[in-house]
Design a protein that fits this description.
single chain; Immunoglobulin-like; 5-stranded antiparallel beta sheet; 1 helix; elongated
Length: about 250
Amino acid sequence: MKKYLLFAAILLAALLFYSCGEDSTGPEQSGNGSISITSSPSGAQIWNNNTNTGKVTPDSLTGLAAGTYSITLKYQNLNDTTISVTVTSGQTARLNVRLPLSTVTFIPVRIWETTGTDSTQPSGLSLSLGKPVGVTSADKNLVDLYYHSLNTAPYEVNSANLASGLSRKTYFYVTQSTNLEDTTSAPAFSGTVGNGWVQSFPDDTRTVVFVHDNDNHFSKLLIVGSGGGVPGSPAWLDMKWIYNKNVNDRRF
């Protein structure tokens, strides 16, 4: 009889031990999930169920109970993008959002060389405003690039900061394409000269030039006309370009 009672006690203890083990692992197995969020371009604010998380893409929301969440990405100059995401316990939902483009194409604008010109023949260009600006005018701090006269041809298109009194830094990447309207994105920009990025290019360039300006916007530029360059007639260039309103967005 004692043997049976001892066996029963051991069996009961074993059952209790097994039960406690299940309880301790239960919450982990049915634990919270997460959402990994990336976007193109990056840097979009992440809102969860109409609440600002304080995070920007790329980032993750963790510790989320299983269920459906309304994720909104906010980016300057763009309409908000909202997507419903279902979170499963113990898993990571991945969200990769391509935000809409926000570009403007400017009609050709004419700028003149820096030598032998007057205030009616501005040498500088403002990419965001889409207009010529004099390099010595009251608005000279708006100049992104200018048409620089050299002693010999070809002349150069220069970053504004290469001229005395101008400060905006602009970088150029000359391509082999002649199609301004294709959807090719600008190459990555590291923040300085290198990997194909320069601060000047010859005025006889007739291929597409990607541009990175002082405000971290990208443009896509093409010289579509030229003239002058003889005594009594200053050289000029007609430029057409696409300006991306989104900061750090290389798409076109």
